[in-house]
Write a structure and sequence with these properties.
532 residues, alpha+beta, Thrombin, subunit H, eight-stranded mixed beta sheet
């Protein structure tokens, strides 16, 4: 894979990634035209983009202007794009066929029933516990003052968003009827395989996957990574020093030549780093490490160096020089020997974790590879039983979804497909104008000029998942009619299965975007450029 990616990059100059589809049943080469000069052109206030906050997240009806505009540049000038979307200012109407072009992150619909049970009973509960832990840590940090609240806001939103999403996923697979239906489907596949001697051996793939779940259970509490911004930088630089001594094809995937540009951009871009936030999160991560591995664990004792997690975290953050891009560049330039001899306390910490990290990752990737081989056989079996019409799971790669603009029934009520811009003011009023249901002053100043009947948000049956946010919604005529920004609560089990009975993707209607840009934000000149 590394060799194919490198040859493609050298030949075309395009970023090239070999993508695994159908859990290992197919391998495709994707090439990307990459832009690295991307500039923010316009953004509304967070209060309008995230109107309703965490309470309204994954809910519907919604009244959010969750849209930003960017422009890509080449050679210091706006890029000339030959292929672009037209725009339909009237947007999507009830019953319309729409398409969603985007990069959905991950679905796991290929999983066997045993693998789903591992997710239900072990993996997802563990993930939720980690998210709840991080949510509390960030909330506590935010209570220290308004500046701390601001610094931690984006991270807190991301964690709350993930926590709610995983809660919905878990609820979906805790429904006994889902596992029963999956097992019945597997039995039907086994009957097809048993009827053909050439296919009978494929059934062993399900046994292999079942055996691998017990190995995954044994690894759940094993961890040698610390989930903070600075620790992430240090971990990558420490690993990179060793990986760069190997041929590209033998390196860990993110350190191969084909991924180098993206890696360096991540490591060496100037980004804000806040000492107090890093200190709080690192202390919590060290405490988690103690809880997971036990206080007598040799690795834990080495990491803490005789101190408690808070004291150790404060000592490390105070002494590291990795806060700046320049500091990270200077460290990376030292190479393997220089990093081995570095006295930077964060580097020393990550160096001590590196052997265990590599051991755990090697074991995990060995399980992953065995599963890929097994799922390749599962895919072959499913193709034999039902043909190859089933599309592969999401992999953060480009794909086209489709559906109809359509309302749905929820809790005995008919939920309409569209909301209107005037409804945002009603929604604010119903919630007594209390945070997070407070529209920006700019909205109230422009209220009398707005057409209250302008469509604002809408839902469709397009099958989306996390990663689709920002995807254009396109009409059958190839014109943009909206922008995906969420799914409803009923869509959250979509990681494991999809049903169009209630699951809906949630979009900002293009008519609402244009109305707001022209009348609230005096950005008519930008609205005039869209779709051209």
């Amino acid at each position: 894979m590394a060799q194919i990616e490198k040859e493609s990059l050298d030949k075309t100059g395009l970023r090239s990634d070999v993508v695994t589809l159908y859990g290992g049943g197919r391998y495709h080469l994707y090439r990307y035209k990459k832009y690295t000069d991307v500039r923010l052109v316009w953004a509304p206030e967070a209060a309008s983009a995230f109107f309703g906050g965490d309470a309204d997240n994954f809910e519907y009806p919604r009244y959010c202007l969750d849209v930003t505009l960017f422009r890509v540049y080449e050679d210091g000038k706006p890029a000339k794009i030959d292929h672009f979307l037209k725009m339909d200012p009237d947007g999507a109407k009830d019953g319309d066929l729409v398409f969603v072009s985007g990069n959905p992150g991950r679905t796991r619909r290929i999983l066997t029933s045993d693998a789903v049970e591992f997710q239900r009973d072990t993996a997802l509960p563990r993930t939720l516990n980690l998210l709840r832990r991080r949510e509390i840590a960030l909330q506590q940090y935010g209570l220290e003052g308004p500046e701390q609240t601001r610094r931690g806001r984006d991270d807190l939103f991301g964690v709350q968003n993930s926590r709610k999403a995983y809660t919905g996923m878990l609820a979906g697979i805790q429904d006994p009827s889902f596992i029963e239906a999956k097992r019945k489907n597997e039995q039907d596949i086994f009957k097809t395989l048993q009827a053909d001697p050439k296919l009978a051996g494929l059934a062993k793939a399900w046994e292999t996957i079942s055996d691998l779940q017990s190995k995954r259970r044994d690894m759940v509490l094993k961890s040698a990574s610390l989930r903070t911004q600075l620790a992430g930088f240090a971990e990558k630089i420490v690993l990179m020093a060793t990986e760069d001594t190997k041929p590209s094809a033998q390196r860990l995937r993110e350190f191969r030549d084909s991924a180098r540009q993206s890696l360096e951009q991540e490591l060496f871009s100037e980004v804000p780093v806040y000492d107090d936030l890093e200190r709080a999160l690192l202390a919590d991560e060290l405490s988690r490490l103690v809880e997971d591995r036990g206080g007598n664990d040799p690795l834990v004792q080495s990491v803490l160096a005789g101190k408690n997690p808070r004291t150790r975290a404060a000592e490390i953050i105070a002494g590291t020089k990795l806060h700046t891009a320049q500091g990270r560049k200077e460290l990376a330039k030292l190479g393997l020997e220089g990093i081995k001899n570095s006295t930077d306390p964060l580097v020393v910490l990550l160096r001590s974790l590196e052997p265990e990290y590599r051991k755990i990752r090697e074991a995990s990737e060995a399980i992953d590879e065995q599963e890929r081989q097994a799922y390749a056989k599962v895919t072959e079996a499913k193709f034999a039983a039902g043909g190859d019409s089933v599309y592969p799971d999401a992999t953060f790669t480009l794909r086209l979804s489709y559906g109809a603009v359509s309302g749905y029934q929820s809790k005995g009520k008919a939920i309409p497909a569209h909301t209107k811009i005037g409804g945002a003011f009603e929604h604010e009023k119903v919630h007594l104008q209390k945070d997070p249901w407070v529209l920006p002053k700019s909205w109230h100043a422009a209220k009398d000029s707005l057409n209250p009947d302008t469509p604002f948000n809408f839902v469709s049956t397009a099958d989306i998942i996390g990663g689709n946010s920002g995807s254009p919604v396109v009409s059958r005529d190839g014109a943009m009619v909206g922008i995906i920004f969420d799914g409803n609560i009923e869509s959250l089990p979509g990681d494991f299965y999809y049903s169009d009975q209630q699951a809906r993707s949630v979009s900002v209607h293009i008519a609402g975007v244009l109305e707001a840009m022209r009348k609230i934000y005096q950005a008519g000149h930008l609205a005039d450029q869209m779709g051209k």
